[in-house]
Design brief:
Blueprint (H helix, E strand, L loop, with lengths): L11 E2 L26 H6 L2 H11 L9 E2 L4 E2 L5 H14 L3 H7 L7 H22 L10 E2 L6 E2 L6 E3 H20 L6 H22 E3 L2 E2 L2 E4 L13 E3 L12 H10 L4 H11 L5 E6 L2 E7 L21 H20 L9 E2 L2 E2 L4 E2 L2 E2 L17 E2 L5 H4 L3 H12 L5 E2 L2 E2 L2 E3 L5 E2 L1 E2 L1 H11 L4 H10 L3 H15 L30
Antiparallel strand pairs: 1-22, 2-3, 4-5, 6-9, 7-8, 9-10, 11-12, 13-16, 14-15, 17-20, 18-19, 20-21
Bound molecules: 2-acetamido-2-deoxy-beta-D-glucopyranose (6 copies).
One 2-acetamido-2-deoxy-beta-D-glucopyranose binds next to helix 5.
Length: 505
């Protein structure tokens, strides 16, 4: 669940691209419309080639002036999850992942670590400069504009800062530092140390800014004056409205930042989890002939709600892994019983062909029968909805991804397109980090391996396991439906005569 509505997630309008993809030697260049060249059976037998083609094309998105600004190292859309996505990707690149290299630098895979390191050096300077100019944020970030050299808060985030998004960012940085250290390459240690210093600073300000006491964490904070230092007598922080960070989804990443690093008394740490407890709920899915299958109740059950498992090692805990595997049984089979050719996740609505503008953002997309929020809009599907499935079964996840991108207009010269209507009457002609790189991150396994290693070194790993084990085992006792197989796509997006993008046919 994203507490703050994504309002500025436009990275690039298809057709208005300033930069064209770098050309590559024809021999190794897969076809832009590669998805239709593979059958579902081929992917299930061995997804390697399909994956290779997919990473190649999704990687075309990663270019200066397309998805990021090389002058300041920042991703373009200012939406927050993207801060984390970019860094998660670079963690794999510095660690030598051939898949990350296929995405970042297919023509010169060996250059990938250097590309990542160089952007992360620039990005850190941008963060440091931001902290100097706006010390009131205490090292945290609001949503910002990144088209200029120095980033500034977007107009609607002046003197405001969100907790959830910073939790996502911080654990990505945590993983990145470990990735650098794990290479054993001495030339990376300086950069690791500098990022550590930046990250450590947020540990000293986290509670002062976001913690209200009694286990209450503010979802969004209003700053008195972003230009004044945290400790300045005229500086103050106020919880915005009644919004609290207490969700058992992505918001939990920030809860753990406070738990481990904010130096709270034990009684407050305990209160953090007591406050969150009512939201962690068990529910059985049962629709048509599928179920019962026990899952964690969703807010909307959008795939987006699964983000936390890509950053912290939740799947080390047996009960969590089993509950979340059930979620993918439900997500895939629900689409089959409801005759949906794809799956749901919070995403941008389609483009209005008469204006060329995206109509809106659909947050409330998921599975109403197992969610807290039962009023949902279920007309737009998105390829990135497969990312939690991929974490359990790459082939099945990619089969669903293929089933969505074979639809009209769903591939373009920067890889997959944001979203399509289920009825095939329109697509969102938009590219975002969220809808593209979340899937790539899942294919790389998130950053949990790096984060686990550093948590062990920081001696916080056992406490993490204890807390999560306790919270999940008190709610989930006898899981139903663990014998159900993941379902494969059955329906297709109808061809209503939309023309594919001219440069990708
Ligand atoms: C990127 O955009 C900036 C600002 O519009 C422009 O000055 C620069 O030449 C562009 N760079 C590339 C490589 O297209
Ligand atoms: C260490 O990193 C530097 C800078 O990227 C690179 O030139 C060098 O080849 C790396 N050394 C090893 C052993 O990977
Ligand atoms: C951020 O700015 C504050 C106040 O000016 C300073 O004390 C702190 O060291 C800075 N943090 C980093 C990581 O540069
Ligand atoms: C999405 O677009 C459809 C028209 O294609 C419209 O009916 C619906 O209200 C829109 N929803 C949002 C949240 O923008
Ligand atoms: C949704 O969550 C809130 C907060 O925990 C709770 O009060 C409410 O009863 C829930 N509603 C449903 C339908 O689950
Ligand atoms: C993924 O699912 C497919 C199809 O159900 C199955 O054949 C395969 O063994 C599964 N792979 C894993 C790693 O579970």
């Amino acid at each position: 669940m994203r507490l703050s509505q994504i309002s500025t997630s436009t990275v690039l309008w298809l057709g208005l691209a300033q930069a064209l993809p770098k050309t590559s030697s024809q021999a190794s260049k897969p076809s832009c419309r590669f998805a239709a060249e593979y059958t579902q059976e081929q992917i299930l037998r061995d997804p390697t080639d399909f994956l290779d083609d997919m990473l190649y094309w999704e990687g075309k998105f990663h270019q200066n002036n397309v998805s990021y600004n090389a002058d300041n190292g920042m991703s373009y859309d200012g939406t927050s999850i993207d801060w984390a996505l970019q860094i998660m990707l670079y963690a794999h690149a510095v660690s030598g992942s051939s898949q990350a290299a296929r995405f970042l630098s297919p023509d010169h895979p060996s250059a990938a670590p250097k590309i990542a390191v160089s952007i992360m050096e620039t990005k850190l300077q941008t963060y440091q400069k931001f902290n100097e100019t706006y010390p009131g944020f205490g090292g945290f970030l609001p949503w910002f504009t990144s088209s200029t050299q120095d980033i500034t808060p977007t107009w609607d985030w002046v003197n405001r800062v969100p907790a959830l998004d910073n939790g996502e960012l911080l654990w990505a940085v945590y993983g990145f530092i470990q990735a650098l250290e794990s290479t054993g390459n001495k030339s990376y240690l300086g950069l690791a140390q500098k990022w550590q210093t930046w990250m450590d600073y947020t540990k000293t300000t986290a509670a002062k800014i976001f913690y209200l006491g009694d286990g209450q964490v503010c979802a969004v904070i209003d700053l008195k004056d972003q230009s004044l230092p945290v400790d300045h007598p005229d500086q103050s922080y106020t919880c915005e409205g009644s919004g609290r960070l207490n969700d058992p989804y992505e918001g939990e990443l920030f809860t753990f930042w406070l738990q481990f690093f904010a130096d709270l008394p034990d009684s407050d740490k305990k209160a953090l989890w007591e406050t969150k407890r009512p939201q962690l709920v068990s529910v059985d899915y049962h629709v048509g002939n599928v179920g019962p299958i026990t899952v964690q109740k969703g807010y909307w059950f959008s795939s987006h709600e699964t983000w936390k498992v890509m950053e912290m090692p939740y799947y080390d805990i047996d009960i969590v892994r089993r509950v979340y595997e059930n979620a993918e049984r439900v997500r895939t089979c629900n689409s089959v019983v409801t005759k949906n050719p794809g799956m749901f996740a919070s995403v941008n609505n389609i483009t209005d062909p008469s204006t060329g503008d995206v109509v809106g953002y659909i947050s409330n997309a998921g599975i109403p029968s197992i969610s807290n929020q039962t009023v949902q809009e279920l007309d737009v599907i998105t390829p990135y909805s497969v990312f939690p499935t991929i974490l359990f079964n790459k082939s099945v996840g990619l089969a669903w991804w293929r089933n969505m991108v074979v639809a009209r207009k769903m591939q373009n010269i920067y890889g997959s397109t944001e979203s399509t209507r289920v009825d095939g009457t329109g697509v969102s002609a938009l590219l975002t980090w969220d809808s593209k790189v979340t899937t790539v991150s899942a294919l790389l396994g998130g950053v949990t391996d790096f984060v686990r290693q550093k948590m062990k070194a920081d001696k916080i790993y056992d406490e993490f396991v204890d807390i999560i084990e306790t919270e999940y085992s008190r709610v989930f006792k006898n899981l139903k439906g663990e014998d159900v197989a993941f379902c494969l796509p059955w329906d297709t997006v109808p061809d209503t005569g939309l023309a594919d993008f001219a440069l990708c046919q």
